[in-house]
Amino acid sequence: MSDKNCAYKSGAQIVDEFIRDKFTLGMHPNEYIKKLITPLNILAGIVVLAGLFLITIRFIFGLDQVTEASNEQPWGLFLSWGLFSMVPFSGAGFVMGTAVHIFNLKKYKPIVKNAIFLGFLGYMFAVIFLMIDLGRPWRIYYPMVISFGTASVMFLVAWHVSLYLTVQLLEFCPSALEWLGMGKMRKIVLGATLALTVFGVMLSTLHQSALNAMFLLAPGKLHPLWYTSYLPWLAFISAIGAAISLLIIVSKLNTIYLKERADKEYLSNIDDITFGLGRAASFVFFTYLGLRIVSVTHEGAWGNLNSPFGYWFLLEIALFTIVPIMYYYGTHIKNLLIIRYTAVLAAIAIILNRLNISLITFNWQLPDRELFYWKEIIVVVAIIIIQILVYRWIVNRMPVLRTHPDYVEEGH
Amino acid sequence: MNLTRRDLLKIGGTTAAFIALGGNALGSEDFSGNSERLGMLSDTTKCIGCRRCEKACNRSNKLPTPIKSFEDTSVFDEERKPYVVDVQSYTVVNKYNVDGKIVFRKAQCMHCDEPACATACPVGALKKSKEGAVTWNQKVCIGCRYCMVACPFHIPAFEYSSAFDPKIQKCFMCYERIKDGIIPACAEACPVEAITFGKKSELLKAAKLRIWSNPDKYLDHVYGEYEAGGTCWMYISDTDFSKLGFPEGVGTTSYPKLTKDFLSMVNLTLISLPALLGGFYIACHKKDEEKKEESQQINEVKS
Prior knowledge:
The structure holds 2 protein chains of 2 kinds. Chain A is mostly helical. Chain A has one domain (about 60-400): Formate dehydrogenase/DMSO reductase domain (Formate dehydrogenase/DMSO reductase fold, Up-down Bundle), CATH 1.20.1630. Helix content of chain A is about 70%, strand content about 0%. Chain A has 15 helices and no strands. Chain A has helices spanning about 10-20, 30-35, 40-60, 75-85, 90-100, 110-135, 140-145, 155-180, 185-190, 195-215, 230-255, 265-300, 310-330, 335-360, 375-395. Chain A is globular. Chain B is of the alpha+beta class. Chain B has a single domain (about 30-255), classed as Alpha-Beta Plaits, CATH 3.30.70. In chain B, a hairpin with a 2-residue loop joins strand 2 and strand 3 (about 100-105). Chain B is elongated. The relative contact order of chain B is 0.17. Classes of the chains: A mainly alpha, B alpha+beta. Chains A and B meet through helix 3, helix 5, helix 8 and helix 10 of A and helix 1, helix 2, helix 4, helix 5 and strand 6 of B.
């Protein structure tokens, strides 16, 4: 940006300017650090430190120090939250990528970079959760290089998640390259947008469904109201709904908390975009509800309704019934508030569904089950906070909610 | 002409390689089995609950000595799992009181013919050996514990207390011994021949012969003949198996079948989606090109 005056500056000045420009949002470092000290940030910091401490303990003394560590319930909150509940929302990248780059829906262009970034972050943190949970995390690349278990759904997930993480990094990196002022590289990567989008859609379709398909191997363990051969397709459809709902929520939050990082095009279009997303979400969730009911009928599982797990199932289904109706109603009477609250409800419904499949109704027949240990919650909350901080750090600096001033003319 | 054909072949080859990566469910699905594979037959009517099999297993596999000795019968007060966290044992004998009748049942890995754990394993660490034992390769295991999620018998256990070398623990049918033709430790130690070791095919015949010659004594059911697609460890009994701690909902479907449909969709998706999306792209952008100026005007009017 400021290359012209370079000749008149000392080295220290250049470093100082670089730090101010790229890292401390134009402030003096001391001033920046002072600004960071707020009660909320201190609380967040304490939780993050506690979480990091517990993660360190896990890597030195083993998983049983931090998790419920049961041989009957081998996957706990780390995977139930970090992988199974979070990845559906990370479908944001591929849903918006398809809408804008394949179906040419220009209306959604202002949020496509944000969507891809949310997706990338979601996957990156899913891998972080996986690293914490894997018994031998230093072998995480084994399914790709060393030994192939080709009949395993998890083998598929490993391949697709790693490939898709790479694709999303490439899809997002133009924003980072703009921030770093590397125009040439940016142009090369942008040229591959269509190919990356197509590849991304293939990988997403397969592994979103594969995440649930992993439980196809547990017919006697997953409760019959949740176990169905439709599991993969239900996962895929609900991931689209999850992605759209997340975008509705985050788009609104951005206009409140990161307003000064967004350009006019983003801010003035969000309401209109939210209506469009709400309409799409209503359609997606109606489809999901239909398929869900068909799936329970197909498995002949309605007889299990009159039991504690049956009532729990009815609660989940009630949420999934309210969500599409509210989305439809909200878009019909043009009420943004209803759509946004419905998005929150939809997110709760999807998280509940994923927790039910991977944790709560898994091994429902066993007595004396303990689902997770309190330390697991601290680690999960700490990582959620880190995730939000990373999101804010990047959006505060890179052109995610706006077009970089150097590339405005390119437009659309 | 030649060149294009070679190019086509190249593309075909790469596609085929990618599809193979995408998911080849054939491996274990088409398992017809080595007809010579070995197995075990447990007869619960003969077992006296002496726990000598547990002791022999512990010694043979060099597992840590448990707190309660193998002669202590107070362990029967509660139903034990073969694998409680870090109390390492590959097998346990449990005592069941079924309507006043005392029955002992030994529990361990069933050595399925088409194991759920091997189907689940993303690195092929768990494998069905040609000898019949389901083995585990420490060198490639990544510790994901999907095998434990998949196993219908709740068998594989994980060393949660180990941060640097956590192993999967389960009975390996004394693989190192049977490879050399030596009988597994538990079967060798059994004083009443409640455990018989041999070829699975012959054990199945022996089991049926025993049932047929004592129809009033035994239930007409060899547990493991069909369960989970067939197992190498089989049981015969005079008591309903559901009352002897066998898990419900195992069924007779072999586990690879459960994910086969999904895995074959993978190839379909990999091949058809690019074409489909390409088509959509062209369709959606063609209109755009034609109506570019027109739509710009409309946008201006709208805003």
